[in-house]
Amino acid sequence: MQLVQQIEASVRITHIFLISLYLKDAISLALWRTYPPNTNYGLLSTIHKAPVLDLQWSLFSPLLYSVSADHTLAYTDLTTGQRIRKLRAHREIINSLDRTLAGGAGVELLASASDDGTVRVWEGGDEAGKDPVAVFELGCPATCVAWSADGATIYAGGLDNVIHVCGHFMNLDMVLK
Q1: Which pairs from 48-52 meet CB under 8 Å and 24+ separation?
Q2: pLDDT tens per residue, the chain (177 residues)?
Q3: Which CATH architecture has domain 57-176?
Q4: Distant-in-sequence, close-in-space partners of 136: CB < 8 Å, separation ≥ 6
Q5: Which parts of 27-117 are beta strand (E)?
Q6: Where are the domains of the chain?
Q7: Omega before 37 cis (within 30°)?
Q8: Is the separation of the CB atoms in 4 and 39 below 8 Å?
């Protein structure tokens, strides 16, 4: 398959969208067309200084959110290919990222999980602030994070083999074992 022959580094994660296939290798993000001729139409190589560990496409704007081993969360405008925001989001490697639309307000929220043992909630979009809107302490490195379908609850997994259930703007209120 021609697509596989063009990738020179290991692929850590893929996200498939109707328009494009996003592959990430080490530090750069390569953008590929989903349908033949499967051409590479963009390379975002100056977004992070360490391997990208997760990424999410904005739910309502042409932004790509990515987290990295360099402890940062980046917002990239896909119309220009330029990073529009880079947040020193955690004290350790950021392992996971998810996004949701909050309630009827139409505000996009991001949740990031890190080896520093925290899950942080951020406002998305190109005019978001630089500080988290909520921080949840897990007590161990957080390896994954996901929003519930209604955007009201965050589920986070850690090295303690427990799924932590967090309410937005509430402390950890329930732990499932």
Answers
A1: 48/72, 48/74, 51/12, 51/26, 51/27, 52/12, 52/24, 52/26, 52/27
A2: 233 334 444 445 445 443 343 444 567 777 777 778 888 877 888 888 888 899 999 998 999 999 999 999 999 998 888 999 999 999 999 999 999 987 666 789 999 999 999 999 999 988 888 999 999 999 999 999 999 988 889 999 999 999 999 875 433 333 333
A3: 7 Propeller (2.130)
A4: 118, 119, 120, 121, 154, 156, 164, 166, 171, 172
A5: 28-33, 40-44, 52-57, 63-68, 72-77, 82-88, 94-102, 107-114
A6: 1-45, 57-176
A7: yes
A8: no
Contact 35, 51 (CB under 8 A): no
Q: Which residues contact 111 (CB under 8 A, 6 or more apart)?
A: 97, 98, 99, 100, 119, 120, 121, 122, 145, 146, 147, 154, 156
Is the CB of residue 147 less than 8 Å from the CB of residue 99? yes
